[in-house]
Amino acid sequence: MGIGGISVWQLLIILAIVVMLFGTKRLRTLGSDLGSAVKGFRKSMTDDNEEGDKPTAEADAAETPDKKEK
User: Fold this and answer.
1) Cα 30 from chain centre
2) Most buried residue, 5, 21, 27, 56, by CB count within 10 Å?
3) How far apart are CA 8 and CA 43, in angstroms?
4) Which of 14 and 2 is assigned the larger pLDDT?
C-alpha cells in the first residue's frame, strides 16, 4: 500500500501514460513554467512584505514639512 491506497506500480503506470500523452519536451517546459511562476509569486510576496514594513516616499513627504516654502 502506498499513498492513499495507490501502489508504486499504479503511480508508474499513470506516469507512463502522462509521458506518452504529452511528451517529455512539453512536460519539461510545463515544469519550468510552473517553477518560474512559483518563484515570481514568492518574490512578489516578499516584496510586498518589505514594502509594508517601510513607509512610502509619499507618506514621508506628507509627514515632513517642505523646507522650500520658507
Assistant:
1) 14
2) 27
3) 35
4) 14
Number of folded domains that form the chain? 1
The answer to the question of residue 2 being in a domain is: no
Residue 49: pLDDT over 80? no
Contacts of 44 (CB under 8 A, 6+ apart): none
- The answer to whether residue 68 sits within a structural domain is no
Which domain does 28 fall in, by range?
23-56
- Indicate whether 13 belongs to any domain: no
pLDDT digits (tens, 9 = 90+) for 4-21: 788 899 999 999 999 999
Count of C-beta atoms within a 10 Å radius of residue 22:
13
